[in-house]
From TrEMBL:
Membrane-crossing segments per the record: none
UniProt source species: Tetracentron sinense
Protein name: PAR1 protein
Entry keywords, A to Z: Signal
Superkingdom: Eukaryota
InterPro entries assigned: PAR1 (IPR009489)
Region (Disordered): 157-181
Signal peptide: 1-24
Length: 181
């Protein structure tokens, strides 16, 4: 009995590999919209959910291939467990680093269930945080030890414009004139 089960499993994986090869693997444009977000095409590019107005004026959704390449994770569809653990929403159109400013979102992202088990989502938010001048592991450490401090560190990361000091004031005679566009 065990050999027939082993044979069935072997045949299943062989057929799956053949089918995936024949179909060209995961293509974002072929994915259903309910699993598009947080998926990675076989080409290694992230899939993203977009919306558009149909000919009759309804909002429709489509899965598209982005230009963002993910290293070492091609052909990946995020699990529902990770989507839930990380507190993300597959039906969201676009993604923003603004969610890092929400303590509840950061707490879920930095939770062991997400941070240690969901490398695709963590990689995505790692890059979003880096774009804001924030190192996600440091933010998560601050979130674990002192959640209020985590928000202060994020807000003071240097990416947001602060108050104008007297040295950089437009009234400073030594300051160069702003470039015209």
């Amino acid at each position: 009995m065990a050999s027939s089960t082993k044979m069935t499993v072997t045949l299943f994986f062989a057929f799956s590999a053949f089918l995936q090869g024949a179909l060209g693997g995961i293509v974002c444009e072929n994915l259903p919209t309910d699993i598009c977000s947080f998926s990675i095409a076989s080409s290694g590019k992230r899939c993203l959910l977009e919306n558009y107005a149909s000919k009759v004026g309804n909002v429709e959704y489509q899965c598209r291939t982005s230009e963002v390449v993910v290293e070492r994770m091609a052909g990946y569809i995020e699990t529902d467990e990770c989507v839930q653990a990380c507190g993300v929403d597959r039906s969201s159109v676009g993604i923003s680093s603004d969610s890092l400013l929400e303590p509840q979102s950061t707490a879920k992202l930095c939770s062991p269930a997400c941070y240690q088990n969901c490398p695709n989502i963590v990689d995505l938010y790692f890059n979003l945080a880096a774009g804001e001048g924030v190192f996600l592991p440091d933010l998560c450490e601050a979130q674990r030890t002192n959640p209020r401090r985590a928000m202060v560190e994020l807000l003071s990361s240097g990416t947001a414009p602060g108050p104008i000091s007297s040295e950089s004031s437009a009234f400073n005679a030594d300051a160069p004139a702003p470039a015209s566009m």
